[in-house]
Design brief:
By secondary structure, the chain is an alpha/beta fold. 30% of the residues lie in helices and 15% in strands. It contains 7 helices and 11 strands. The chain has a 7-stranded parallel sheet with strand order 3-2-1-4-5-6-10, with helices on both faces. The chain has a two-stranded parallel sheet with strand order 7-9.
Length: 297
């Protein structure tokens, strides 16, 4: 591990710098790790004064406010940090980095933006982490979709992957290339590959991002149809007539998908990061069982 040879024991208090803490998975991860450990979190945020309803803001239980430090910066800037004193402070105290920030766009028209965030952003984070004197691990959140267009019965191992024959979109390819950057960085690393992330097990926490983009499209289409036939949907709650929308989903109903609840994914990530056997390894954060598209919908 070159000069980055500091090892922390399990359950020891750590200072962790986190990117992507305001995302769907990031918010749940921060909530859980504050409850389950004594670590101090340094959250890399873009908005210096985010309003309460800003989707990029993060609300922390008042009990844990003293263990949160917000650091202004942006992963697409080579220097990352907005203020030089923040960089100097982090260089001396950060024990681990958790890099979760990413673009989840899939459109070919946004290839340049996707690569800037997912590949260049990861490279910038790695270069920054190389200056951290206490760094014990660079934890990188990837995706199972780095597998690209590989198909059953091929088994995707928890290991480095060669470039896939093809990718469905620039998101998949950019995340694969980001993994290569992490492995070639010379830093001690851990790479975690979540599958499709859905809301929490109790249904109390979900996002208008990820798979819920599709759900929103169908929900809004249903409201438009109800409005068209004269149902008052101003309050968006009048479903008493239970009028079904004849809008087919173009998919194979028996096709299988791997979906994991966001709270389970966050818990798995914490267990991995707390382990002293995580170094230079891959972990697939996925469900032991798949569900059909029909069941998912």
């Amino acid at each position: 591990r070159r000069r980055h040879n500091i090892q922390l024991h399990e359950n020891e208090m750590k200072n962790i710098l986190i990117s992507g803490s305001t995302g769907f998975l990031g918010k749940e991860f921060v909530r859980q790790i504050l409850e389950k450990t004594d670590h101090h979190l340094y959250l890399l945020v873009r908005a210096p004064k985010a309003s309460p309803d800003d989707r990029r803001s993060i609300h922390v239980d008042p009990r844990f406010q003293s263990r949160i430090t917000r650091v202004e910066g942006d992963i697409v800037d080579k220097n990352i940090f907005r203020h030089a004193e923040d960089r100097k402070n982090c260089e001396n105290i950060i024990d681990e980095v958790l890099h979760m920030a990413a673009s989840v766009e899939f459109k070919e028209s946004k290839r340049a933006e996707i690569y800037q965030v997912n590949l260049e952003g990861t490279t910038n984070m790695l270069n920054m982490a190389k200056s951290f004197k206490r760094l014990s691990c660079f934890n990188h959140t990837s995706t199972t979709y780095v597998s690209g267009n590989r198909f059953y019965p091929e088994v995707i191992p928890e290991a480095p992957l060669e470039k896939a024959p093809s990718y469905k979109n620039p998101y998949e390819e950019s995340k694969h290339l980001a993994e290569q950057s992490v492995m070639e960085s010379g830093l001690p690393w851990t790479i975690m590959r979540p599958s499709i992330i859905s809301g929490s097990q109790d249904g109390g926490y979900f996002s208008d991002n990820t798979i819920y983009v599709i759900c929103n499209i169908f929900f809004n289409a249903r409201l438009l149809y109800l409005e068209h036939i004269g149902v008052d949907v101003a309050a968006r709650t009048d479903m008493s007539r239970k009028v079904s929308l004849n809008a087919p989903l173009i998919a194979k109903p028996d096709a299988m998908a791997n979906v994991i609840h966001v709270d389970v994914a966050a818990d798995m990530m914490i267990k991995i990061m707390e382990s002293d056997k995580k170094f230079n390894k891959f972990f697939h954060i996925s469900s032991p069982e798949t569900v059909s598209v029909d069941t998912l919908m």
